[in-house]
Structure formats: structure tokens, C-alpha cells
Amino acid sequence: MSRLFLFRHAKASWAEPGMRDFNRKLSPEGIEEAQRIGVALRKRGLIPTQIICSAADRARETFDAIDQDDGWRENVTFTDTLYSTDAPGYLEVASEMGHDGDLMLIGHNPMLEDLAIALGQTGNDEAYTHINMGFGTACVAILKFDGPMSNIQETKWTLEEYLRPRDL
Questions:
Q1: Of 19, 96, 131, 147, which is most buried by a Cβ count within 10 Å?
Q2: Model confidence band, residue 146 (pLDDT cutoffs 50, 70, 90)
């Protein structure tokens, strides 16, 4: 069994005049949200073996907030692609990694929401309902499937869980 963690960056501050969207930073609330999610993932034993993170500042800061010096940094790759691609592009990035095991994508909406809705149609109905109402900041959809991550494009997914900071 493999798991795909779809993690939307935490709450960001508004852009200052002249600032690119790519360079927006997390708000103090966003840092706290991401830290709560990191703790919840560890408590549940939901530890990805590989992480692909958008290179946008708010995604990098989300990763920094969940990384507690327990080896996650050694398994992260940063890429601009997760900032600029669409939902199918997220799957392409994941499959191109060639990684087998649990994989986390830290990225952006609407791509993560679209992907979670497309892949998570079976499994946890309550989680699916929450995602359909909007994939919130610092939320994580956890999908599982039988088989290696190399078959990510041709597999049937099950939505296992949807973690929201406000529920923790």
C-alpha cells in the first residue's frame, strides 16, 4: 500500500505592494496551523518517505513549520512546477519522482482541491464532503492505494483521511 499526502500550504499573509505572489510569506496563524498538522501526522504515524514541495515561499515555510529535525529535510525536493502546473501536472511531478512509498506534495489550490476531488471519490465520505466545501489552508488529504507509487497515474484511490488544523 502507498499513500499520497496532498498538503495545501498554510495561511499566508497578503502580498505587499510590488510583491510577487510567489514570495508571499506565512502569517503567524499559518505557522501555528502547519505546526499542528505536523504534530498530528507524527502522532498518527503518517510519515511520508518522500516530500515534493512547491518552491513558493509560503510552501517552503509550511514545510519548515512541519519539519522537526526528524529526517524530513533529507527527503524533500523543492520545485517551481508545483506553483505553476495544474492538477494533472501534480500527478506527473509525483510519477516522475520514481519514488515508491508514501509521498507528500506540498502545494497550492485549486490544484490540490481538484486532485483530491478527482482521486478521493471512494473511502471516507465525511472527508470527501469537507474537501468539496473547499480545501482549506494547512489541510492534508491522505489517499491510499495498493501498489507502488510508480503506478500513480493508473490506480484506484481511496480517501483515507482529511486533516484540518481547526479539528486538532
A1: 131
A2: confident
Give domain 2-167's CATH superfamily.
Phosphoglycerate mutase-like (3.40.50.1240)
Domain limits of the chain?
2-167
Cell numbers 499526502 correspond to 5
pLDDT band at 74 (very low <50, low <70, confident <90, very high): confident
Per the document, the length of the chain is 168
